[in-house]
Design brief:
By secondary structure, the chain is mainly beta. It is 13% helix and 45% strand. Strands 1, 2, 5, 6, 8 and 9 form a 6-stranded mixed β-sheet that branches. Strands 10, 12, 14, 15 and 16 form a 5-stranded mixed β-sheet that branches. It has a 4-stranded mixed β-sheet with strand order 11-18-17-13, with no helix packed on it.
Length: 285
């Protein structure tokens, strides 16, 4: 009788031991998995946020790159990068530029809250990036923005003839992303306004400026100068219906609150489609 009781005891003891080992292994796996989720990688703690939020960092999806050469000497180069963000929570994080010889490498990164519930609608973005080209030798240069490459040429050495103290301040570039915003200028300072335009549709931007602002005329005696889109490699004929941008150079000539209003319309029509307007407020000191 005692022998049967002992057998049952050891049988239950073995089963208990096995169950304990299975529980311990399962618990260990859960802890390891939880630790792996917080290991350093693409997810890092936001040191500027509150509440210990985590962010996912990635590379921005750039769709097109355009290079604008401003009509000044020394030459100033602006890189216009356009692309999209995958959802409503993702935003531009950093823009870093490095130069290696005749190549400029620009990296645009993004971040989004790790656990945020976001709208799935794609958000477009436009970034204007100035290049440090002062003092560069004449030659051909390439610009790579997140894998999209364009090039520009400096016909002469980009070295000022005047002393640095006599050079005008660098003009700022205003784009459609600045619609409704306010900028600050000093009296006598200029800035550039860049808006997309497609003359093949018959539409053109018409600007109205307050009296404290002057706009330069282009080669056709029309305010601003039109720049068509660059031809894709291997295509010689102009693309029918392809748009471009119009660039205005605007100078502040009086102090006070000034304003630029743009309407995108056909010259012979009085109305415009809702939303095709642009307004910029300027405070001139």
């Amino acid at each position: 009788m005692k022998r049967g009781t002992n057998n049952k005891f050891w049988k239950y003891a073995k089963i208990s031991t096995i169950l304990f080992m299975v529980f311990a292994i399962t618990l260990s796996g859960c802890v390891d998995e939880e630790q792996n989720e917080t290991e350093p990688g693409n997810i890092t703690n936001n040191s500027q946020g509150t509440g210990g939020e985590y962010y996912i960092y990635s590379t921005a999806n750039v769709q097109s790159v355009q290079i604008i050469t401003l009509e000044s000497f020394p030459v100033q180069i602006q890189v216009i990068a356009e692309g999209y963000l995958p959802d409503g929570c993702t935003e531009i994080d950093k823009i870093e530029t490095e130069r290696e010889g005749n190549a400029f490498n620009i990296n645009i990164s993004t971040k989004r809250p790790k656990d945020a519930i976001c709208t799935q609608a794609i958000e477009s973005f436009t970034e204007t990036i100035p290049l440090e080209v002062l003092g560069l030798d004449a030659g051909n240069y390439t610009v790579n923005v997140n894998g999209i490459t364009e090039s520009f040429e400096l016909a002469v050495d980009n070295v000022p003839h005047e002393s640095p103290d006599s050079m005008p301040p660098r003009q700022q570039m205003v784009t459609e992303a600045d619609n409704g915003k306010t900028i600050n200028l000093e009296n006598g300072e200029t800035f550039y306004l860049r808006l997309p335009e497609n003359p093949s549709t018959g539409y053109r931007w018409e600007l109205n400026l307050t009296q404290g602002l002057n706009v330069s005329l282009g080669p056709d005696d029309i305010p601003g100068e039109y720049y068509p889109s660059e031809q894709p490699e291997g295509i010689e004929q102009p693309l029918v219906g392809a748009g471009g941008v119009r660039l205005w150079e605007i100078k502040a000539v009086a102090e006070g609150s000034q304003q630029v209003t743009g309407v995108y319309k056909k010259p012979w029509e009085n109305e415009t489609t809702k939303g095709n307007t642009f307004t910029l407020y300027i405070e001139v000191a």
